[in-house]
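Aggregate trends can hide what the representation actually does to any particular protein. For completeness, the protein is quoted in full, as a sequence line and a line of structure tokens.
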Amino acid sequence: MGQVLGRFRGKKWRQSQLNVISHGVFDCFKNDSGRANLSFEDLYIAVLLVYNDINKRLPGPHFDPPSKDQVRAMMQECDIDLNGELDREEFVKFMHKLTADTFIVVSQGLIVTLAVAPTVALLTKRATEGVPGVGQVVKKLPNSVYASLVTLAVVQFQKPDPPHH
């Protein structure tokens, strides 16, 4: 249950996760190209990489990255020095702005899961107690343990399957 609660730490935790992802992706481009800024093409590839990481790290639904037109429009909004490229600071702000809705959807899904799953677990526990063989084991489990196990199972099932290569 600690791992589930760790994912539910709030806005600061989500921002720190996005910072780790964003800085890592920015550093990859900086090291590969030797340049300090991202061009539009580099930026779009970076967005795809960040969304790939988000989809791997966060529970819940898979998020599709924005289109090139959406990225281009938002790049213009975040290009503070108007040089047609994004530096590290502009890129991190760009990613926070771009992914704000993503984190809201994940948070809402996790809240629903953590609120609804224990209630559903207790209702199903009563129904399962009458099943021969399984019922005796279920009766011996305390309600809190049973609810935690079902909640963990629901959170695990919300994670997308890893891509098959």
In short: The chain is about 75% helix and 0% strand. The helical segments are 2-6, 11-33, 40-57, 68-78, 88-128, 134-140, 143-158. The radius of gyration is 21 Å.
